[in-house]
Amino acid sequence: MDQHGYTDIGGLAGTFRTTHWSLIENARSSDPDANRSLIGVLLQRYWKPVYCYLRRKGYGNEQAKDLTQGFFHEVVLGRHLIDKADPAKGRFRSFLLIALDRYLANVHRAESAQKRIPRSKLVPLDVVEPRELPSVVSSMSAEAVYDYVWVSTLLEQVMEQVKTECCGDGMIQHWNVFRDRVLMPILQQSSPPSLQEICTRHGVAGERQASNMIVTMKRRLQAVLADHLRETVTSEEELTGEMDEIHRFFLAAAQERP
Q1: What count of other Cβ atoms lies within 10 Å of the Cβ of residue 67?
Q2: 134-161 pLDDT, tens per residue?
Q3: In terms of domains, do 155 and 57 share one?
Q4: Among the three residues 84, 103, 130, which one is the final residue of a domain in this structure?
Q5: Last residue of a domain, one of 130, 151, 182
Q6: How far apart are CA 168 and CA 179, in angstroms?
Q7: What b/e string do you get for 114-124 counting C-beta neighbours within 10 Å, with b at 16 or more?
Q8: Which residues are within 8 A (CB) of 64 and not within 5 positions of it... i.e. 6 or more apart?
Q9: How many domains, in total, are found in the chain?
Q10: 162-192 confidence digits (pLDDT tens)
Q11: Domain span at residue 65?
Q12: Interatomic CA distance for residues 198 and 221, integer angstroms
């Protein structure tokens, strides 16, 4: 993925919707609908990073599940997070990690955390053992694992959206070429097939056409990714930093190829 291409399509001049911060502001009004919307957004984006962070900290599977439940119930639903939220303090996921560490400091046993959660108000988390993380995370700190899983989760959502859009736009061949040539080799840490093989596999007229398809898909992916990131940052500078981090993620994953 071309690092400089991030500013071309979908670029940095778009509107910053700051959805997460806006939801927090609305939830301060005690609007139940706003509160549920906030919880839904946070769960979708952050339960896996929180869970994997806890596992890297040394908590067992069940402990990490209980603590993830407790964090979202007590800190988010309990309004402790919302009361302290301030977009001026930086990007949202860093703010959330600070809140998680403070929560852990106040929890002595996972069992006691579970007991404090009313059964009727449990956050509906589908917390299961995620698939094994790649070897690149084995030497990472818990904080780095948190960021890695956050990026991975975000990319899964972005790629699913791009795939859906391509199906709707009659560009499924573009998606398949991009998936097999670029995405799968990175995600599976394998060598990419040749363009000639890609053309044969997907009925593309020639390598130049396949290359053009890949460029088109990179730009679309970058545009959708930037759109998602604008929900969690408040400035062009922050967006650039997040895009650079995604770029480093792809480089690290590519370097893991055998």
Answers
A1: 23
A2: 566 667 788 888 888 888 888 888 999 9
A3: no
A4: 130
A5: 130
A6: 17
A7: beebeeeeebe
A8: 51, 54, 55, 127
A9: 2
A10: 999 999 999 999 999 999 999 888 777 788 9
A11: 16-130
A12: 19
